[in-house]
Amino acid sequence: MTIRTVSTTPFFDQKPGTSGLRKAVPVFQQPNYLENFIQSILDSLNEIEGQTIVLGGDGRYYNRQSIQIILKMAAANGIGRVLVGCNGIFSTPAASAVIRKFNALGGIILSASHNPGGPNGDFGVKYNVTNGGPAPEKFTSAIFERTKTISEYKILDAADINLDNPGSFNLGTMEVEIIDSIAPYVKLMQTLFDFDKIKALLSSRNFKMCVDSLHAVTGPYAHTLFEKYLGAPKGTVKNGTPLEDFGGCHPDPNLVYAHDLVEILFGENAPDFGAASDGDGDRNMILGRNFFVTPSDSLAILTANAKLVPGYRGGLAGVARSMPTSTAVDKVAEKLGIDCYETPTGWKFFGNLLDAGKATLCGEESFGTGSNHIREKDGLWAVLFWLNILAVRGKSVQEIVQEHWEEYGRNYYSRHDYEEVKSKPANDLMEQLRLMVGSLKGKKYGNYEVAYADDFSYFDPIDGSISKKQGVRIGFSDSSRIVFRLSGTGTKGATLRVYIESYEPDASKHNIETQKVLKPLIKLADEIAKIKEFTGRSEPTVIT
Ligand code: G16
Question: Which of 359, 378, 408 is where one domain is finished?
Fold first, then answer.
């Protein structure tokens, strides 16, 4: 087997976004495109000789082909061992768990998360570091710099490896181990949750649940966890076979894209509990019978009930949420007397807080929750957490949420997405907001008075790094808030995200329709940011 050094020229669009490099499949299929990015990752790492890395993806189109290319490049660059998920499959949380378990140098995860897949869908590559979490900005910037100057990459001339069964192979001097990625993940979950109690709940005739894996990576994990270990009847997990194009669906667990599950939970004879995960298994959506739990509320409720769950019985060191996530969890943290950190959007910003033992639970409005058990958000972990709480408290999802609101007040919350708008006007919209924020304090809009307005900037208390321009936030004197930012995960044009929140302490006003409550703020968001004028859109594409 010979190592080939191949000449190449840079692509200038390989800047990693909120979570790695995401592009349409045909972009990744251009000659040398994937190879350039992988070589840039390897060049940005120190001392890779003989090290172990983890490799796998969410099973989407181009996953298998990419794995073969990456294996040969890893071998040519001196990596000692690669642990690959059987069939090339690794959910993002399972990859994080395995990086930590094997003290690997890091991992390459192939996924475009919740974006659609298939030959014309999206693909993505992200690098996770030794702690199992997404590479911090310092590292992704180094990769990007390298992509701009790259002139060659190394690859081994060798036959493809069979990924279909566990086993060991040699690729040049490198060892390839095809491993079962489900068993270590299930084992980790058993250390955190009361499997006996959950099993009793799931096998009871009085409790029905429905889990939708949306033809994506969590299918095999969910079948094993719920149907094999936890006694749920067969058929509990729907769409549980990962497909390269996710069956033509959009594997995003929200009210719009997980509509089949929503119909079941809001239909006749609805189950007691419903959950969905995204393409790579790090997101979750939680539903009760006729009831949707916002991700922000979910984080607050997990925090408030953490002591009921074995893995968190000792209490929480602190919690963290991304800036646009509602402030519901802040109120719980205050009551518990623990710190609550506010970070920019992107799971990578939680890594330092988790490593330093400052936060135990983290969460984001974008359907992500997780804890210090790994360094990624974890969809099935969130489902198990909820089931553990339900099993202990013996109440319905709706009762638990409503009792939570009674105690802490309700943060009405919604996100309005304007997808695939043109980049230039979207950037112009943000720029005018940035120019405006300095002069907004004290300004009155009808009943609303601006208490503060800024372009969010984060000072990392652990490494002292500063991340600027993380979203424009406008807070009002009644605790309501509007946040504007552009998504860092889209692949077509720009996506404007508008996050709207208002706080209602009065329990007699907790059961009003969210969009109705937020209507004046939604109108105000358009008035302040001139959304219609800049984007030409009069309605968002997705409301969650
Ligand atoms: C990624 C990040 C999350 C982020 C989300 C949305 O999730 O890991 O931290 O909240 O994207 O980001 P944006 O608003 O920039 O599109 P995932 O599940 O796509 O990896």
Answer: 408
